[in-house]
Amino acid sequence: MYSKCGNMEEATKIFDNMSEHDVVSWNSLLSGYILNRQGDKALAVWKKMQKRRVHPDKVTCLLIISAYKYTNLNLVEDCRNFFLFMKSSYCIEPNSDHYACLVGVFGNWGLLEEAEELVNKIPFEPKVSVWKALLDSCRIHKNTTIGRRAARKILSMEPQDPSTYVLKSNLYSASGRWHCSEQVRDEMKARGLRKHPARSWIIHQNKVHSFFGRDKWHPQSKDIYSALDILLLECLKAGYEPDTSFVLHEVEEHQKTNFLLYHSGKLAVAYGLITTRPEKPVRVLKNIHLCGDCHTFFKYVSVVTKREIHVRDSSGFHRFVNGECSCRDYW
């Protein structure tokens, strides 16, 4: 519970105070560090497990492979070696989930060709999660060539999954292929599929405040928009430059900054800044990946406001403190 709320200090205290540990409790600690993007700490836990001769199970191996996505240094070779010796060392046969994690590690560090080659060499028919890991890596690195092949495979396996259509469309948009993007969106509509809109939440005084992009339904929307306008000016002075490549709509260049400024996450953070006490972090939840521009913007917001910004998106936690983020470079 504590790790899922971003409080690894309390999570670790509870773990340390347990009278004894089994593989489930070790796995819980590992997963907490991975959720909070602290891969090096997760691997340090694994070293402790080895010293205490804790025999890993399938879940442990999944978590150890995943940890290599979030290390400060590129340790892909170490990850590959662990994967290769999993069966001989721990009698654990790699399944689709293990391959999906390894593909995610390769993709995260930019080894997209190697990740695709790995998928094609899996000695059994992989689950759709493996292809989704490859497609997500293509999203991060904006690789439409491999991404298109991965999306085609996913759609042949799960033709009713709207998220794949959205990712494929966004890949085309990011590379300026607007016509192809529109074709994908039209195909979605023809199949009767709808995209879940980006949404962000913040809890204030035991009430959930929810925001969509360019949302003006909140009773304090005037204050929120005024705060965002002021924040933008201060962040621009501090060196922030809006990255309009993350606007996945075919609009005029001068309109793109406006689109960026009113993303749901920015609205939620602005609301948090004007309603919470200065010594408290602003904590926001988001139902999809945090975009690269929001990630950069929040770094500057943490500087100009001298506040901590904590955002949990669909991939894990981001903590912005004094212009730095707890995760390795996100994009």
Automatic annotation (TrEMBL):
Classification via Pfam families: DYW_deaminase, E_motif, Eplus_motif, PPR, PPR_2
Top-level taxon of the source organism: Eukaryota
Record has Repeat as a keyword: yes
Ranges of the PPR repeats in the UniProt entry: 22-56
A GO term, aspect molecular function: zinc ion binding
One BP term from GO: RNA modification
Annotated DYW domain residues: 239-331
Membrane-crossing segments per the record: none
Keywords assigned by UniProt, alphabetized: Repeat
Family: Belongs to the PPR family. PCMP-H subfamily.
Name of this chain's protein: DYW domain-containing protein
Species: Handroanthus impetiginosus
Lineage of producing organism: Eukaryota, Viridiplantae, Streptophyta, Embryophyta, Tracheophyta
